[in-house]
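Q: Sequence in, structure out?
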Amino acid sequence: MTTVNVLGAGLAGSEAAYQLARRSVPVRLFEMRPASMTPAHRTAFFGELVCSNSLKSVSPETASGVLKEEMRRLGSLVMAAAEAASIPAGSALAVDREEFGRFLTATLEGMANVEIVRREVTAIPEGPTIVASGPLTSPALERALQALAGPRHLYFYDAVSPVVTAESIDMARVFRASRYGQGGDDYINCPLSRQEYEAFVEALVSAEVVAPHPFERAVYFEGCVPIEELARRGRLTLAFGPMRPVGLVAPLTGRRPFAVVQLRGDDRAGTLYNIVGFQTKMTYGAQRAILRMIPGLERAEFVRYGSLHRNTFLNSPALLRPSLQLRGRDDLFVAGQLTGVEGYLESAATGLVAALNAARLTAGAPLLTVPAETVLGSLIGYITDPARGDFQPMNANFGLLPALDAVALRGREKKRALAERARAAFERWIEDCVLEAGAHAAWAAQAAGAGPEAGALRAAGR
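A: Exactly. Output:
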């Protein structure tokens, strides 16, 4: 049987390799780490999470929650890993980074028809290939992509939030709570008075930042803007953004703080916390000084500083079909953040779809298009719509779905209706087009502990 090359073992590449292998398609999975590292990665684990450790909301009335359901129905390895490595995070699905990466790595290393090649790829191979090299694609492979795709090649900046040790947080100055009481006390909240907030913003505005390289210019994805950049946009921007205090009451005062900084658990042991929404390009020295102005973090011990790095993605509307094939080469698929999707699960989901279609291509079967009424289909439709002009990265959201017939619906009712329609459309599609005979039973056995995921759990000591 024809072997499919998968370039990159991030979330999209790991998901793609797994989906191909479980359909008995031989896979050659290339990963350049640890021999060649990126500016953001620190380990050799597949699917290493370099930004937040949150995979966003699990609510069935959110686009993120519906996407998770769709991925589970397709037997997603990334979803299995996330749920196995989950840690408390209120209404969000957050994971222990190390356990998550170990799960993915052990699973794929344990599959007989997955050949893992630990070296950098500098040219795109002949034959069926999925390029999932991610937003930190190496310069050599980027040049190969650019030669294939032409001059329509874009980039943006993604940012990493700082992580502090739990023992260095002054618990007398903070309180545990989730907004509106949803999810219990999974977050640590650092309350700021107006005076403390204004002093903090003043320090951010004048902070020393890392200068960009000569070839870089600051084109930020709006969902991941550095905090100092937000502060420069207006003195109250942070108070209405990542530091908004709504739904929180400080126990010591019985009132809502003027602003709040939230910390979320970063590991299962509860020893590390990341500062939610605090991506930054400040120098390490500036981070140490300014972030310690936050009440409760005066003696914070930083195990990871925030950073900002250059990310690469394609002008997918001009280059990709809804099957995620490159328009100029039928046996070449692209997946992950390289396509312009933004978010961990969004990246993994495109890897899943690319693998479904690569498997069908090798079998001579018709390729699939995910219905636009589903969350996954609407996201792929967005990134592959050739009529789209000014293309920027996009998360899964209900705004991408076709309008409802019942236009009078608003707010929560509208979201609920969109979610229900997406589920119904997905069920019809999955029954008609995707699941091979017996796939439901196979995945159920794996989820119950009879498949490679169980072996990965045992290898992780779970």
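The chain has 14 helices and 17 strands.
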